[in-house]
Every structure is written in C-alpha cells, then in structure tokens.
C-alpha cells in the first residue's frame, strides 16, 4: 500500500469544515470540554472523532441535562432578558429554528408553552465543537453560550428561563403565553 492510499479520503465539504474549525479554534485554550461530554453519557472518543472529522457530534439528553427548544423570535427575546438580569447561562445552541437551552434534568418536563419543546431522556442533540460560536457556525449551528471549558456543571436555571420566555411571548403577542 502506498502512503497516499493509507491516507483517509475527505470530501471537499469535510476539508472546508475542518479548516473552519481550525480557524475558529485559534486562541482557544482548552480545546475540548471532556468533563461535560462524559456527564452527558456520550462517548468522549466518538464526540472528539466527529469533531476531528468535521462533523457534528451526537450527545444524549436526559442524563446530565434536558434541552429546552425555543423558537427564534421569542427565544431571542427571552435570552436577551436573561442576559440583562445577569442570570447564569449554561450552554445554549443557536440553530436555524431557534435556540436549544440546557437545563437541569426534569426541571422543564411539565412545561406547556407555545412553540416550546422539551427534550429529555431518549433524545439526542447534534452539537458542533465549542469553538463554533460568534461568527462561526457548523451546519447552521453555533454556540450562543459555549459549554464550560473547565469541569464545572453550569446550566441555565429553568425557572428563570420559563419566566423570561413567558414575558417574551407576552411582549410579542404570542397566544397562550401564560402556559
């Protein structure tokens, strides 16, 4: 086998994503939040391999955190309100459909809010590398608030998020805003 034959073949899209990841990682001190990945129940090796290959990684919800899916407009306003109160924000993923906010397991399970979905045990989340924030995105996903670089377990307070979302939905005139 020639040395070239032993090299993995990458598509043009994979090469672009890996270059984008490399550019985004410039200056990123602690490259992977391994403790956060372990707590999710995902295989650290699988997650790191996906990121290395320029793919989104899949991690399960319902073990270390649940995921609250907010629509774009009301979610943006709710997060703006939380930031204005200096509320502690955990990892928040921005997607073309809105925001995915990580909260403590079970704390949002009984929510009945318009256009909000709560994903718990049995659900998965497709995530880009933590350097994909700010101007960088991967397949339409970017971290609005990145996972902690150290081993802290930081999540957004579900009660604060609920209040901010109800306020945002009412402000925007969304039917059923009081849940």
Key descriptive features of the protein:
179 residues; alpha+beta; 6 helices
Strand order of the largest sheet: 5-2-4-3-7
Distance between the termini: 64 Å
Low-pLDDT stretches are 24-30
Tally of DSSP helical segments: 6
Share of helical residues: 25-40%
Beta strand %: 15-25%
Structural class: alpha+beta
Sheet of most strands: 5 strands, antiparallel
**Number of extended strands:** 7
Q: Roughly what is the average pLDDT, rounded to an integer?
A: 83
Offer a quick outline of the entry.
With 179 residues, this protein is of the alpha+beta class. The protein contains 6 helices and 7 strands, in the order ααααββαβββββα.
Report on the architecture of this protein.
Helix content is 34%, strand content 17%. The chain contains six helices and seven strands. The protein has helices at 3-6, 12-25, 34-40, 44-52, 72-84, 158-171, and strands at residues 57-60, 66-71, 92-95, 98-103, 117-119, 124-127, 142-145. The strands form two sheets. The protein has a five-stranded antiparallel beta sheet. The protein has a two-stranded antiparallel ribbon with strand order 1-6. Helix 5 (72-84) packs across helix 6 (158-171). The longest helix is centred in the N-terminal third of the chain and has 14 residues, at 12-25. The radius of gyration is 18 Å and the shape is globular. It starts with a helix and ends in an 8-residue tail after the last helix.
């Amino acid at each position: 086998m020639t040395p070239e034959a032993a090299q993995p073949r990458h598509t043009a899209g994979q090469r672009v994503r890996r270059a984008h990841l490399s550019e985004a990682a410039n200056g990123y001190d602690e490259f992977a939040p391994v403790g956060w990945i372990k707590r999710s129940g995902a295989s650290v090796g699988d997650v790191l391999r996906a990121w290395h290959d320029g793919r989104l990684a899949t991690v399960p919800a319902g073990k270390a955190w649940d995921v609250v899916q907010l629509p774009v407009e009301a979610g943006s306003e709710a997060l703006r309100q939380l930031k204005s109160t200096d509320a502690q924000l955990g990892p928040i993923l921005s997607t073309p459909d809105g925001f995915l906010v990580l909260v403590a397991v079970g704390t949002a399970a009984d929510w009945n809010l318009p256009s909000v979905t709560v994903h718990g045990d049995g659900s998965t989340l497709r995530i880009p590398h933590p350097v994909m924030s700010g101007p960088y995105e991967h397949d339409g996903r970017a971290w609005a608030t990145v996972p902690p670089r150290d081993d802290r377990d930081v999540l957004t307070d579900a009660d604060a998020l609920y209040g901010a979302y109800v306020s945002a939905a009412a402000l925007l005139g969304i039917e059923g805003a009081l849940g």
